[in-house]
Structures are given as structure tokens and as C-alpha cells.
Amino acid sequence: AGGVARTGNGELAVQGIGVAELAKEFGTPLFVLDEDDFRARARGFKQAFDAAFADLCGGVDVYYAGKAFLSTEVARWVTAEGLRLDTCSGGEMAVARVAGVPAANLSLHGNNKSVDEIRTALEIDLGRIVVDSLDELERVALLARETGKRANVMLRLTPGVHASTHEFIATAHEDQKFGLSMIELGEEPSPAAAAVSYALTHPELNLLGLHAHIGSQIFEAEGFELAARKLLSFQAEIKNKHGVELPELDLGGGYGIAYTEADTPREPAVLAAAMADVVAATARELGISIPRISIEPGRAIAGTSTFTLYETGVRKTVQVQAEDGTLSPRRYVSVDGGMSDNARPVLYDADYTAVLASRVTESEPIVSRVVGKHCESGDIVVRDVYLPEDVAAGDLLAVPGTGAYCWALASNYNYLGRPAVVAVRNGAARAIIRRETEADLLARDLGA
Ligand code: LLP
Predict the structure, then answer these.
(1) Residue 402 backbone dihedrals phi, psi, to 5 degrees
(2) Segment 167-186, tens digit of pLDDT
(3) How far apart are CA 388 and CA 251, in angstroms?
(4) For tag attachment on the chain, is the N or C end more exposed, with fewer CB atoms within 10 Å?
(5) Which domains does the chain have, with CATH numbers?
């Protein structure tokens, strides 16, 4: 992140505030978030996509995907930077409302929204309910009639494009829980087509457009382009069949970030330009007007803003046998957190890196494995990283790129309290989420 650098004495610092001071004031493990970096990336997405689509549809609505990392402060930052907010539960909606985000700026996602969640969305006049299935569309219609509201809906489709970092498979990716299939079932219309007909014939539903989310941690524009083409073709079919042009099109999130040097994401401006070209050309080909485009980046805004600061504890070195029988040492370095504050290595085999943050040293870098303190051998933070040989108990380690889906996925496994999140802005640090205490952990235990 931009504001992170070594000070004169070699200590890592955020906007000039050293990690030792942060650890002393807020404890470890600690999520250290560079608020300026977060905001700059939010602003950067908005500006890049606005610029690319200005002449096509007057700009782009950027929804920050709150699932990546959300707090009331974060909701206020993205709102101040001109973004909207994508929520996917009653809890996320509650955070947004407490933060004062206008309901019109919110979208609500989820493949199994509860009646309460839908009712809340209707009651507060939430901007867009992204409907995931025919069952849900009927449920939304029923609740709209009940509450006397007209529901603003988008339809989430499965365009048969599944993209990930290193591969994307342009064959049907139907076998998943999300979205309305675009494939016809014999004589029957596709679930997507049936949903459109249903929405257009129920006046309590205000069908605003189509939506697709094709995956996460995507580097290339190709998958987004394919999805845009598919959805625009479907728009053209809707125009032919129903004589309406849906005003909006949401291309979802999924923009990748660099976790390690091996990752090479594209700049938002590059992706935006490629996507704008395809949208413009496809709409022209099909003879339809260009809908208002929206996107939902989460990771690419939050991810690189944050590093996790850990204190190191015990070390040990083992001899690892290679296939040819040769032995080589691997040193384990334990830290005071682990899979409860970063589940991504365990869940997705995700790669991170780590640096000695408290000082620089001349000592030889050796292959190290950074592990957590949980009672589980899979509790690995960084699988393989060169760390100085003299790393010792009481040093501070920083693991960068932990701003997305780390705090959000944090747990209380082994009764560890979730870490605090500290935001640094204008050279000052303040906690935006405090650390959980043992009292917090016991508060819900009715026998305590
Ligand atoms: N929109 C929808 C409908 C989504 O489902 C998601 C993420 C996003 C937007 C934001 O995607 P992003 O821009 O952050 O990639 N826990 C996993 C990632 C799960 C993503 C779920 N959906 C991980 O840590 O890699």
C-alpha cells in the first residue's frame, strides 16, 4: 500500500507511524488499514469506469462489495468517495443504515434472502434487490404487495462464464447455487426468460436490469467482456419479445489484486476501457441502447489497503525430505493469530507473503513457514517465505494484502477474540473496530 515504508531505523511504518507504536497501543494481531489507500482505490475505480463509459451511458455506478470488509466507517468512506454499497444480509444492511448510507444507494444480494431481509429492503426503499431465482422473485412480489411497495429488482443470471485468475472456462458453469440459468429446458423458456416475463407482468416489480458475477480474483478483461456480450444479447431478446429496453446492467465484481509477486492484476482503467469497447460494439451490433452500467468490486478496493501485524513467538526447524531423498531445513515461525484472523490459506490455499516489520537485519534470509497458534496443523499463514534467520520471539511480522475477506471471515476458533482494525489517515491512527475481549467471548454463554 502507498503509505507503507521503512523509517530511518528500519522499522515498517504507515504514514510515518511505526509498527511498534501501533502494536503497543492496539495490541496484536492487528489489522492495519491505510485509509488513504482504501479511499484512493475506491475513487480510482469510480473515476476509471466513469471515464471509460462517460460517452456510452453517462458513467458507471460502482457498488463497493461490503462482504470483503465492512464497518460503519468503511460504509461512510465509500459513500463519500461517490460509490454505492452492495450488501448481502440483514446485518450488512444494518451496518449501512447505521452509517447513514442512503437506502437508494444500496443493493441486496444473496441466493436465499430471508423474508425479513426482503421486507426490510422494501420498507426502507432499498435501491436494488438482486433477485437470484424464480422462487425468490415470487417471494419479493408477494412481500411487495404486502408492504404496498414497488420492488426495484435486478435479475442475477448465470451467463455460463466462469472466470478465475489463471483460467476462465467459457463453457456453461450451470452447476452452482447462484443465479437464473439462461439455458432453455426443452420446450420451456429458460429460468432467466421466465423471470423476465414474470417481472414485466407484475406491476409490484420494477425490473431495472440484469446482473452477472462471474468469479473473483480475476486479472483479465476477457471474462467480463464475454459476460457483457451474453447479457446484452439477452437484453436484445427481451427487447424483441417484450418491446422493453431494461435501463441497467450490472457486471458484478471480481477484480483481482496482487497477493504476492506472482500476481499481475490490470489497472482498473485498462479493464474499464476493454469492457467499454465490448459493450459499445455489442450494443451497436444488436441495435439496442446502452444500459447504465454498474460494477461491484470488493477485494480490489479493500485488499491491498491493509496488512496484518503479528507478534512472533516460538520457532523450530525441521528437516524436510525431498523426493530424491535430500534433506533441507524448513523453519517454522509461530505468530499470535492464524486461521481465525485469516482463513484464506486454509480455505482457498491462498498465498501470502510476510516481512519482518519491527527492524531490518543483516542476518541471512532462510526458508520459513509462518504458522498460527491454533490447534490444527493446517493453520498456516504463509506457506513459504524467506525471513531473516535471527527472527526471534517478540519481533513483529507484517502480512500484506489482508484487507479483503480476512477480518470478514474471522472466527473465534479456539476462543480467540477477533483482532482490532486500525485505520490510519493524515498520519494518525484510530481503531475503527476494537479487539474482542474475553468478556465479549463469554457474553453470549448463558451459563457463564
Ligand atoms: N458481487 C457479488 C455478487 C459477489 O458475490 C462478490 C463476491 C462480489 C461482488 C465481490 O467480489 P470481489 O470484487 O471482492 O472479488 N471469500 C473469497 C471471495 C468470495 C467472493 C464472494 N463474492 C476469497 O476470500 O477469495
Answers:
(1) -105, 25
(2) 544 444 677 889 999 998 88
(3) 44
(4) C
(5) 4-34+304-443 (2.40.37.10), 59-297 (3.20.20.10)
Using CA positions, which residue lies closest to atom 15 of ligand 1?
254
* CB-ligand 1 contact for 254 (6 Å cutoff): yes
Q: Which three cell numbers stand for residue 341?
A: 484472523
ipTM: 0.99
- Calculate how far, in angstroms, residue 351's C-alpha sits from the geometric centre of ligand 1: 17
The neighbour count for residue 183, using CB atoms within 10 Å, is 11
Q: Is 297 in the pocket of ligand 1 (CB under 6 A)?
A: yes
Report whether residue 213 contacts ligand 1, using a CB cutoff of 6 Å. yes
Give nearest CA residue, ligand 1 atom 22: 216
* Residue 83: CA count within 13 A, CB half-sphere: 32
First to last CA, the chain: 43
109 CB less than 6 Å from ligand 1?
yes
- Whether 271 is in the pocket of ligand 1, judged by its Cβ within 6 Å, is no
Q: Over the chain (448 residues), what is each successive 10-residue block's mean pLDDT?
A: 87 97 98 98 98 97 98 98 98 98 98 98 98 98 98 95 58 75 91 98 98 93 94 98 98 95 95 98 98 98 98 96 93 98 95 97 97 97 97 97 98 98 97 98 96
pTM: 0.96
57 is an active site residue: no
Å from CA of 213 to ligand 1 middle: 8
Residue nearest ligand 1's atom 5 by CA? 213
Going from the Cα of 321 to the center of ligand 1, the distance in angstroms, rounded, reads 38
Nearest to 140 by CA among 205, 234, 217: 205
The two most distant CA atoms of the chain are separated, in Å, by: 73
**What whole-number distance in Å separates Cα of residue 305 and Cα of residue 421?**
12
Report the separation in Å between the CA atom of 110 and the middle of ligand 1, taken as the mean of its atom positions. 12
Joined together, the cell numbers standing for residue 211 give 446482473
